[in-house]
Amino acid sequence: MNKWSPAYKPLERKPQGAAKVHAAPPLILSLSFLAVIIVGTLLLKLPVMTVEPITWVESLFTATSAVTVTGLVMVDTGTAFTMAGQTVIAILIQLGGLGLMTFAVVTLIALGNKMSFLQQSAVKEAFNQTDMSTLVSTAKAVLAFAFVVEMMGFIILNAFWWPQMPASDAMFNAFFYTISAFNNAGFALSSDSLSAYVGSPVINITITALFIVGGLGFSVWLELLKKRKWQLISVYAKTMILGTLALNVLAFISILMIEIDNPATLGKLDTVSAVWASWFQAVTPRTAGFNTIDIASLEDATTAIMLLLMFIGGGSMSTASGIKLMTFVVLLLAAYNYISRGAAPTLYGKAISTETVSKALALTLISIGITWIAIFLLLITEDAPFLDIVFEAVSALGTVGLSRGLTGGLSDSGEFIIILLMYIGRLGPLTLAYFIASPRMSRIKHPDAKLAIG
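Request: output the structure for the sequence above.
Response:
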């Protein structure tokens, strides 16, 4: 066939450098977090970062815990790491808490580049947003909001510690705890976390305010700042605010009643300190990870409450993890709707779609499945009480950071199980499920199956 033939088509040559990598957004997000963990591991292994050399596993564990904003530690952050190492940990927390995609968007804007469709999809996955047109403005607003809140926290904590220690130490403590609290990380510079301040109103109010603000979800705060009226905010924002308030108050009252006579926790404190301790322990399981009393000394009933709170977690597009409060609310409403034989579950007069219910159910079941597998494996690898293992697994997957003392005594296998749990917990079980079952369109209509349930 010659080139003058009508059927002749010249071969098209793709310009060099035009090849594109086709990858699912969750994969981009997963690899981004993994890359930061690897870089963090390498940095923390440098001699200048630690007082004494630490192992590669300890470095990896710390970096993973920081990037996933968990707070579980194998070595004491305040004594094992130098100020340089602690600064690196704080930076890793900030990157993991606010999200790599936020920084990526702002960087692209600063460079004057437009995001490709694939980049937009990755950012949408990170923000849990559906409207791509608002991603850039959302990323800017998130960073601005985080800066203002963290600056306020820094000023208050710095003023509190200034009379108690040298000025440089007060400033660094304020810097580290502000970042750790706002990002729901739970890293502390003392081996007993914040137990020394169990009765301090300043520490209790400031630290809990920071991690509640960070865990509620940026979209909720941005909506409140923009609309400023309860009637105008979305159903999601209303549910998150009221749901968070309800959970915190119920947990606070329950813990106070259960622990008030426990001589190892609230029983040894004065009334005011006991109230502050109850409040702190009620709100910290929502993935914050700090504590002001010994977690291992809590009554089993209190531990059960904490397990539920850790599993639920905070809000979408926040520094918190867990299955998320809205997921929990959707499941409760769907169950109630089925029992009451309603047409469809509703919230503030609006129907909840079947797709939303299915997504909530899938995320919860996957989370339960991952937790069960982790507990089963830890029961094989660790010689520890059952409750301690369950608590450690749920805390790791929820990126909470609370522990009953098991973290430091984990076996080599147990350490890697917890590392993997922290990584999965930050990415979200539903993100990982994306790889297992990508949605496929089918034109085949199957007949309904009659199945007995219950």
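The chain has one domain: 25-434.
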